[in-house]
Amino acid sequence: MIELFWLLLPVAATSGWLVAKGYYRRYLTPTNSKSMDAQYFQGLNYLLNEQSDKALDLFVNLSDINQDTLDLHLALGSLFRRKGEVDRAIAIHQNLLSRQNLPLTLKDQCLLELAQDYLKAGLLDRAERIFVDLRQSSSLSAPALLGLLEVYQREKEWLRAIHTAQAYEKLSGDSQATNIAHYYCELASQAMILGEKNEVLKQLKMALLTDPGCARANLIQSQLEIKQGNYKIATQLLLNIIDQDPAFLGEVIDPLILCVEKQGKISGLVNKLSGLVNKYSSNKSVALFSQFLQKYQSTENAIALIESHLEESPSALGLKRYLELSIVNAKPEQKNYMEKLLIIVNGLIQQTMAYRCEQCGFAARAIHWQCPSCNAWGSVKPL
Ligand SMILES: [Zn+2]
Predict the structure, then answer these.
(1) What spacing in Å lies between the alpha carbon of 220 and ligand 1's midpoint?
(2) What's the CA-to-centroid distance between 355 and ligand 1, angstroms?
(3) Residue 145 Cα to ligand 1 middle (Å)
(4) How far away, in angstroms, is 377 Cα from ligand 1 center?
(5) How far is the CA of 357 from the centre of ligand 1 (A)?
(6) What burial class does residue 16 get, using C-beta atoms within 10 Å of its C-beta: 0-12 exposed, 13-18 middle, 19+ buried?
(7) Which of the residue ranges 14-18, 172-176, 227-231, 344-348 would you say has the lowest mean pLDDT?
(8) In sequence order, what DSSP letters do the residues of 103-114 get, joined into one string?
(9) Span from the CA of 310 to the centroid of ligand 1 (angstroms)
(10) Ligand 1 centre from 14 Cα, in Å?
(11) What distance in angstroms lies between residue 76's CA and the mean position of ligand 1's atoms?
(12) What is the distance, to the nearest Å, from the Cα of residue 255 to the centroid of all Cα atoms in its chain?
């Protein structure tokens, strides 16, 4: 019953729209269009009964379409698209476009809807051609640019995405800096695969010029510098990331320790990391720093850090580290018990999501620079 309620919601909205447009009034009042109104209500009835094929046949074969009924057809096309019935949405919109004497502004509106259908169906070339034409339209330029942006992102045409986002920003006044910086990072990642260091650095420079808060740009460059043995430069880049976004402390602490170990400057890092972990404590950063303390100071210091953090912020990851550290000096009869606990805690960690989108709440086990759920860039952060 609940599923049926949600299925009927869009139809109910369409029905409400009919009320607003005076269809019920006109239907109750005998007019020359009585037959036409009856047909529309028959179509609505088909929709309510989930007989989409019959509804589609009826609507595309209606001979009379005026301004009011055109809006209804557009609403129906949009309804079909939202329900995932893209073929039917395309049929509705193509039918409208085949009508003679359709005013230019209405034709453009129908074309925009058709392009959205193609986008939803994955027919990117067809969608792109329409969006490109509609860019010139005075009233539909903004949605056409957004449609084009979607096409280029799906095609991974990052340079075109940059130019389109810049055009949209200029037109709408909505900042696209975060998105554009990520497009430059995508170009940098492509260049990285090809081993073109200068190109990587060029794109990352553009990313940071566009959005100085783009932690991803410094993360990519730090990976490049580590690969080439430039540990001093990488250290500074990793520290920059913590300044840009402290949420990434857990992501950079491991490579940071590696860089400092390679430079043989361990003592200087203990105080630095200790201060950062205390200031921006996250379960992951505390767990990683405890490994560092165990290696370069003592197991007791590592246990003390974990104990104090667990009291403030209980977590499966913290408990795992606590057990791993404690098991070293445990009595034989305790070890067996603690090993079983470790298996259980590891199972819990496997089920734990480590990242979450700040915009839509999407949770994931790995970082996504573009949220797979709401498509926002840079919104998925370490928990
Ligand atoms: Zn999201």
Answers:
(1) 22
(2) 11
(3) 21
(4) 8
(5) 5
(6) exposed
(7) 14-18
(8) -HHHHHHHHHHH
(9) 29
(10) 29
(11) 28
(12) 26
Q: What is the pLDDT of residues 211-248, one digit of tens each?
A: 999 999 999 999 999 999 999 999 999 999 999 998 88
Q: Say which CATH topology domain 175-267 has.
A: 1.25.40
106, burial (CB in 10 Å: exposed 0-12, middle 13-18, buried 19+): middle
Question: CB-based contacts of 221: which residues, under 8 Å, 6+ apart?
Answer: 200, 201, 204, 237
Show the 3-state SS of 220-282. Answer: HHHHHHHHCCCHHHHHHHHHHHHHHCHHHHHHHHHHHHHHHHHHCCHHHHHHHHHHHHHHCCC
Q: Cα(144) to centroid of ligand 1, in Å?
A: 23
Query: In terms of pLDDT, which residue wins out, 31 or 328?
Result: 328
Question: Is residue 301 scored above 60 in pLDDT?
Answer: yes
Cα-to-centroid distance, 179 and ligand 1 (Å): 14
Topology of the domain comprising 2-157: 1.25.40
- The domain segmentation of the chain, as residue ranges, is 2-157, 175-267, 281-351, 353-383
Separation of alpha carbons 226 and 258, rounded Å:
9
Q: How far is the CA of 74 from the centre of ligand 1 (A)?
A: 28
Q: What is the pTM of this model?
A: 0.77
2-157 and 175-267 have identical folds: yes
Distance 205 CA to ligand 1 centre (A): 26
Q: Measure the CA–CA gap between 21 and 339, rounded to whole angstroms.
A: 70
How many whole angstroms from 354 Cα to the centroid of ligand 1? 14
Longest dimension (CA), the chain: 94
- How far apart, in whole angstroms, are the C-alpha atoms of residue 241 and residue 97? 52
Are 79 and 14 within 8 A, CB to CB? yes
CA dist 108 and 141 (Å) reads 10
Q: Using the mean position of ligand 1's atoms as its centre, give its distance from the Cα of residue 164 in Å.
A: 22
Q: How far is the CA of 259 from the centre of ligand 1 (A)?
A: 33
Summarised one tens digit per residue, pLDDT across range 242-283 is 999 988 888 888 898 899 888 887 777 777 888 888 777 778
